[in-house]
């Protein structure tokens, strides 16, 4: 059991530092926007480029993870993320080349989700996977929080490009180190074909799962709102609330830290208080978001604002653990990697749409109208969850 925990911690460390670099777009959006002289719409396309890469890579990587040694895949993906951001740090002022390098990094960042999910499934039985899955998902927001605290502080002294370069090199070194530590256990992480049928037949099996479809649809909306919130929070606090850059970065870090806690605590809440009903948790999250955004607009006290930001982060970032549990629980264990890849891939569509649209509304109107747009989108998410709850209730009655 100690050996399993050691392997899990290596997976978590890998995911954490991948997020540390990959999610650095959130705190650096203001720096990149100023350096490249971008509009809010153009800033909105920065995270979109990352998730375009995620969209392209996640589903294929999910299927590959069901067939190939996952420890090797993890090294490959960490190398892609590190290389993409290292290249980003070398350019000066070319917005479209920057988008290309960010998209390249997104290929590795997105592929990490199904691969690390598959690695946990290879180590744990399904009935015991909720906690390690939640901790692994928590490491993503912790990595993002660390980037907000550490990288902004360094960037204030040496510049954002040099800071990104240093972080990228660190990720490459960690990827090699973790691979060497996992290599003696490669047989544990060796995958075999989940099925002899075609890729199309596997897709049909995944698409026939109603819980997987609805959880992916909800994740599409919540992921889009989450990335929008993380991207524009720093700008909002600086421009509207007139906060210093580092103070705004600390608020973003606070949001991410509470989001990391949410990824674990929401799973515990669903197991202990809601009889493992993940859908009720998603409903609570979706209902709170409009209220939190309204509070963010009307409150002026800094301490109270940080508390509101923390609760939004707890909800928006915290939903990922519940979502990943729903994805892997909705299919047979041998298709867990494919299900994760399928769900993350199609949920990424929300990131293509919502952040740029938010940026466009912001350019044309104000933060008030753009925030109202997010509240309306979240309300639509509530309706979808209610429909799914009725379907689940009807299914239990029929059974």
UniProtKB/TrEMBL annotation:
**Entry keyword annotation includes Transmembrane:** yes
Tell me where it mainly resides. membrane
Q: Does the keyword Membrane apply?
A: yes
- Membrane topology of the entry: Multi-pass membrane protein
Against InterPro entries, the record matches this protein to: MFS, MFS-Transporter, MFS_dom, MFS_trans_sf
Its subcellular locations are: Cell membrane
Q: Which PROSITE patterns match?
A: MFS
Q: Which residues form the Major facilitator superfamily (MFS) profile domain?
A: 7-395
Family annotation (SUPFAM superfamilies): MFS general substrate transporter
Q: What residue ranges are annotated as transmembrane?
A: 7-25, 45-65, 72-89, 95-116, 137-158, 164-182, 212-238, 244-266, 278-297, 303-328, 340-361, 367-390
Protein's UniProt name: MFS transporter
